[in-house]
Design brief:
Elements (H helix, E strand, L loop, with lengths): L20 E4 L5 H12 L3 E6 L3 H12 L5 E5 L5 H15 L4 E4 L14 H29 L10 E6 L12 H21 L4 E8 L8 H4 L2 H8 L10 H12 L10 E4 L14
Parallel strand pairs: 1-2, 1-4, 2-3, 4-5, 5-6, 6-7
Helix pairs in contact: 1-2, 1-8, 3-4, 4-5
This protein binds NADP nicotinamide-adenine-dinucleotide phosphate.
NADP nicotinamide-adenine-dinucleotide phosphate binds next to helix 1, strand 2 and helix 4.
């Protein structure tokens, strides 16, 4: 999968996540790539998870190492329990622990409702929802084992679930995707409630339209981009760095009191822009 250029965030304080170990799933492309790089820029050691694109993952690792932190690429299909367990065990072995999980890996398999196959439905639920469940469960076991280390962070661990504006906005032709993100919202809030007493912070980011390979057809041509901009009050399509900045902030102690929240990073897409001139 192609990677997006220009992911170095100049504005991120270099020590915000110093000494922390971050696992970013689906980190060889798009939002995950930008987030992994931004975490490294903020001083974290980073595991760059991917499933197919090894070469792209290795390039991301090189970008992150340039900040003087540790980075490694780990292959694992987030929807496969054995592979997720092996990935998190390996991270604990090689990096010592896990402080931050960004459960970002995701995909679309679009079809109109009656054309959608069970395989398309199942695949998207498996990767987008079950994948986040498995990664969150295994990371949480490590957070609980280690507990709070005050010199590193006020929390025992931080989980950031990558959701979507489609946890709120229905999306015709994408019922599998919208259902997966609706599931992510309730999973995130339930985990946040269950784990907060253990000093584990679980939150989500709900991106709007961000320029990545997953939605290339929505922004690639000027006509498509104009259609898209009608849905975005702020008047620009989002960049992966917009999400990466939110992820670094949510993972840091600056946001230590943010628990069970979904941060919409969408240029106002969820503000029902059609009502600005009607309704
Ligand atoms: P992307 O560029 O297509 O990246 C998807 C990433 O997920 C790739 O790194 C891919 O790895 C990985 N992946 C897919 N299946 C996997 C699996 N089974 N196990 C492990 N990794 C897997 O898409 P993106 O836009 O950055 O999307 C990232 C997340 O943001 C997704 O959860 C998506 O739903 C969410 N999101 C995106 C937008 C947007 O506008 N772009 C909006 C809202 C939400 P390989 O390359 O190795 O397959």
């Amino acid at each position: 999968m192609a990677s997006i250029e220009g992911t170095l965030r100049q504005g991120i304080p270099a020590h915000l996540l110093k000494g922390q170990k971050a696992l970013v799933t689906g980190a060889n492309s798009g939002i995950g790539l930008a987030t992994a790089v931004a975490m490294g820029r903020a001083g974290a050691d980073v595991v760059v998870n991917y499933v197919v694109g090894k070469e792209e993952a290795e390039k991301v690792v090189e970008q992150i190492r340039a900040f003087g932190v540790r980075a490694e690429a780990y292959q694992a299909d987030v929807s496969d329990e054995d592979q997720v367990v092996a990935m998190t065990n390996r991270m604990v072995e090689e990096f010592g622990t896990i402080d931050i999980l960004v459960a970002n890996a995701g995909m679309q398999r679009d079809a109109s409702f009656t054309e959608m196959t069970l395989a398309q439905w199942q695949k998207v639920l498996d990767v987008n929802l079950t994948g986040q469940f498995l990664c969150a469960r295994e990371a949480t076991k490590e957070f609980l084992r280690r507990g709070v280390v005050p010199e590193v962070s006020r929390a025992a661990g931080k989980i950031i679930c990558m959701s979507s504006v489609h946890q709120l906005i229905p999306w015709a032709g994408h019922v599998n995707y919208a259902a997966s993100k609706g599931g992510v919202q309730m999973m995130m809030e339930t985990l946040a409630q269950e784990l907060a007493p253990k000093k584990i912070r679980v939150n989500a980011i709900a991106p709007g339209a961000i320029k990545t390979p997953i939605n290339r057809s929505a922004w690639e041509t000027p006509e498509a981009q104009n259609d898209l901009l009608r849905l975005i009050p702020y008047g620009r399509v989002g960049e992966p760095d917009d999400i990466a900045a939110a992820a670094v902030g949510l993972a840091s102690d600056l946001m230590d009191y943010v628990v069970g929240a979904t941060l919409y990073v969408d240029g106002g897409m969820t503000l029902f822009p059609g009502f600005a001139t009607g309704g």
